[in-house]
């Protein structure tokens, strides 16, 4: 359940920072990268092989995540390893994995519901979590 006692001023003061943080999760490739790295430290070659990302895309996405301070690197000889550097990432990834990738599902889960088609008038309404799932579906087999 969501807390409802947060002052509006606190929400306004932190909205831009929260929006920028969430933007980093907004592309499927970055989301998969963070999901994969959050589970355990990974080498660049492991990430590339496991996720099937092309090297230029992988380098670009890792650089953005590293610049934002969400991931960190460790070098061992010629191999570079990536791991999560921000505990907020672990919290968000844990929540996303629980919500979208859990094998123990309740009836009417986001996977079982069919999304309503979005129209231009839908942009003004808030998406509930099941609708938002359509934009961030994770494949637990990977």
Please explain how this structure is put together:
The structure is a single chain. With 142 residues, the chain is mainly alpha-helical. The chain has six helices and three strands. The protein has a three-stranded antiparallel sheet with strand order 1-3-2. The chain has helices spanning 8-23, 28-39, 44-51, 55-67, 87-100, 129-132; strands at 42-43, 71-76, 79-84. The model is unreliable at 107-111 and 118-142 (pLDDT under 50).
What proportion of the residues is helical, as a percent range?
40-55%
Tell me about the biggest sheet? 3 strands, antiparallel
List low-confidence stretches: 107-111, 118-142
User: Helix and strand string, N-terminal first?
Assistant: HHEHHEEHH
**Mean pLDDT over all positions:** 78
Compute the separation of the termini in Å. 30 Å
Number of helical stretches of at least 4 residues = 6
Radius of gyration: 17 Å
What would the principal axes of the Cα set say about the shape? globular
Major sheet: arrangement of strands? 1-3-2
Pairing-aware structural class of the strands and helices? Answer: mainly alpha
DSSP strand content: 5-15%
Number of DSSP strand runs: 3
Describe what is shown at a glance.
The chain has helices spanning 8-23, 28-39, 44-51, 55-67, 87-100, 129-132, and strands spanning 42-43, 71-76, 79-84.
